């Protein structure tokens, strides 16, 4: 078609060392996709896996009743506005996180087996081995349609060597995404670098030059695409003009927060044993929320459809003094039924659920055609440990948020038979990503009742 090159060119706003992908704009729907023979926009589904360490306080996580008329317990309180967008799934198990003859090391196994369903080989050396993770199965299938096949995020540094848990390599505790059985996907923990990856376009040298110019002149990344944006705006309808303006305002707001975090990081006293990269906020909540915001942008602009977010490395002993918990997370997870420690672990769990609620709210606020970005997503939140005190890997805390582009029926608590493989859920979600495989890890079949069937 005569105007097709214009529409394809306008999929991005371009400037010196800058490439800003646009959200879906009805005025710019291409007759042919930019990357490959991708599905139509209306069928695009996003998949994200969010992992929290050390399990949850299950008595305050699991609803008492099943079906649609369940009541969210105490830890679910922040999710109440999204109850109709949630599938709470009980009874799921990750057998390969259990010792199975390998002795201690439940934290390392919990993270490594979470998305792979494979037993990690017990080693603290370079001969790590586990399996391909569910996110990378999806990335292999749908990654051809986007700039980035997948996006791996985290808040704690990656460690791929050394002994972190009873003879298990740190690679197991610090990664949930595995490209192959011996290759973890390195996660990015610096919001500034994620931002530059998403919006610092062009060749490597061009991107570096653009970044240097922006920093020297204290300019926003948007200043370099303003001419392209003005030219585009005149070709959009009123609704798309408003949508573009809101999107660019959102990009700039995140950019400002990253700059503020970098300035704060440069002023703080550096610990001799640990130097935080510029751009990582001192406040953990802000760090998590910046990462969530960047993930929303990546999904909104279809730069990737697959992501993982390791909110903290498994076994993390981070303290949370701003919510009244100066003890380490791992320490209080071993509460021994001590009421005071249980209250502290509940506070930490609630903090993480509050951040999840923030993320779901952001996804729900983004409109894409006649639905929200949350409607067109499948967001898995959970842990590879159930009760941190027991280190058990059955009855895992798992929820799925979103409607999977109409393929999920949320707003329910579903209980499965004891020790149902968690990987059966992942098989079912991969089907909904047009990434069907016969088996992943220790899966035994597809998980039923996700669409309301009994």
Write the layout of secondary structure elements.
Layout: H1 4-9, E1 12-15, E2 18-21, E3 46-51, E4 86-93, H2 106-114, H3 134-142, E5 151-154, E6 163-165, E7 168-169, H4 170-173, E8 178-180, E9 183-184, H5 191-199, H6 204-216, H7 226-233, H8 238-267, H9 284-300, E10 306-310, E11 319-320, E12 325-328, H10 329-333, H11 339-365, E13 367-368, E14 371-372, E15 377-382, E16 398-401, E17 412-421, H12 422-432
Parallel strand pairs: 3-10, 3-15, 4-17, 5-10
Antiparallel strand pairs: 1-2, 4-16, 6-7, 8-9, 11-12, 13-14, 15-16
Q: Would you kindly provide a written description of the structure presented here, covering whatever features stand out?
A:
The protein is an alpha/beta fold and 454 residues long. The protein has a domain at 44-189 and 280-432: Alkaline Phosphatase, subunit A, CATH 3.40.720. It is 33% helix and 16% strand. The protein is built from twelve helices and 17 strands. The strands form six sheets. A seven-stranded mixed sheet has the order 5-10-3-15-16-4-17, sandwiched between helices. Strand 8 (178-180) and strand 9 (183-184) form a beta hairpin. Helix 9 (284-300) packs parallel to helix 11. The protein starts with a helix and ends in a 22-residue tail after the last helix.
